[in-house]
Amino acid sequence: MEETDKQMTDRILVTQSSMPPFEEYVEMIKPLWENHWLTNMGQYHKELESELEKFLDVPKISLMVNGHMALELAIQSMKFPEGGEVITTPFTFISTTHAIIRNKLKPVFCDVRDDYTIDYEKIEDLITDKTVAIVPVHVYGNICNIEEIQEIAYKYDLKVIYDAAHAFGEKYKGESVARFGDMSVLSFHATKVFNAIEGGAVCCHRKEQYEKLYNLKNFGIRSEELVVSVGGNAKMNEFQAAMGLCNLKHIEAEIQKRKVLVDRYRELLMNTSGIRLNEYQKDVIPNYAYFPVLFDTPKIRNEIYQKLMEHGIYSRKYFYPLTADQACFRNRYRKLNLEHARYFSERILVLPLYAALTLEQIERIAGLLIESIAMA
Ligand SMILES: *Cc1c(COP(=O)(O)O)cnc(C)c1O
Q: Which of 242, 246, 261, 340, by CA, is between 20 and 30 Å from 346?
């Protein structure tokens, strides 16, 4: 029994949610017991929207109950014709693909590049007269080829909606990543670099976009007696917004802590043969959201995954399988040549990384990995 307890406390999960000091959160939510205003675009909702607009340098931000609904409503707000095709990546969290399909659109899967993001050089081949949009993902915080993608979008008159769930707070050539595309979508899920327990946001450029999203997330209600359009409910509540405001105060320190850990991982694993580390991109200020390691073969990847687990270290095969291969829509959608995406998917492992991890834990994980590879 004692041993089990010890094993439990020694357990290292792939991530651990960042939380502000308890007192800070309690202090923040105390007024809610006085004003009883728990949701419906309350004070904290307003504050978090404006704080994030400042922090991310985005003209308008619409907060949502979670990242998935942010993505779904961002796409819905564009009013694409039913059956329209959306070029996207299969190397992502299932949410990206579901958001497209739940809008009655068809995902068209495009292969990825060495940095795991959509291969812009293969996008044009997939465009048909039904194509309406491109939904790329900044995978692991690696930024897509935004200039090239924008050029294609202009040429074919397509919208671009970035799933920027992995890229909170990042900059590309000095510009906030949240500004890219027609809209960029963020997730503030508990497991993300910045969290609001659950939460998400659509980053947009114009007031009209913001108003459309407001209607979609709040039943189209504009005043007590006026409903202007059909909408659902995807509002962020005050407890979430309060958590977001508290966490935002510590975000820079959080990212700095992650950087120190990532630097140590890299130092330890740099010269290990049989693996490839994620290269940080030129011109990008990263947020150190994930630490993916690519192995030479699927067999070794799976062995290391197992081996780490036996030692209470929980890495993740993120993203495996490809969303295009998932049981729920296997073979329903076009997926031509996904050679690279499939290659990465079968060989990738995301190692534990979160601000509260210690250098000793990083050393233990890296040591085990090196030892296991040598024996594999
Ligand atoms: C987390 C995530 C989402 C969904 O966000 P939730 O807040 O969990 O709903 C979408 N896409 C990607 C790439 C994600 O990592």
A: 261
The residue whose CB lies within 8 Å of the most ligand 1 atoms, and thus the one to mutate among 68, 117, 118, 202, is: 68
Residues 47 and 312: their CA atoms lie apart, in Å, by: 40
Cis peptide preceding 59, ω within 30 of 0: no
Are 287 and 255 a contacting pair, CB within 8 Å?
yes
**pLDDT tens-digit readout, 14-61:** 999 999 999 999 999 999 999 999 999 999 999 999 999 999 999 999
Q: Is the CB of 96 under 6 A from ligand 1?
A: yes
269 CA distance to ligand 1 middle (Å): 28
Q: Which two tokens stand for residue 124?
A: 């044009």
Summarize pLDDT for 149-183 with one digit per residue, the tens.
999 999 999 999 999 999 999 999 999 999 999 99
Provide, for the chain, the percentages of residues in helix, strand and coil under a 3-state DSSP scheme, each rounded to the nearest 5.
Answer: 45, 15, 40
- From the CB of residue 102, how many other CB atoms can be counted at a distance below 10 Å? 13
Please work out whether the CB of residue 195 comes within 6 Å of at least one atom of ligand 1: no
Nearest ligand 1 atom to alpha carbon 92? 13
User: Would the CB of 217 count as within 6 Å of ligand 1?
Assistant: no
Query: Which residues of 173-331 form beta strands (DSSP E)?
Result: 175-176, 183-187, 200-204, 221-223, 226-227, 275-277, 284-285, 291-295
The bridge status of strand 171-172 relative to strand 159-163 is unpaired
- Residue environment code for 106-133, b if the CB has 16+ CB neighbours within 10 A, otherwise e: bbbbbbbbebbbbbbebbeebbeeebbb
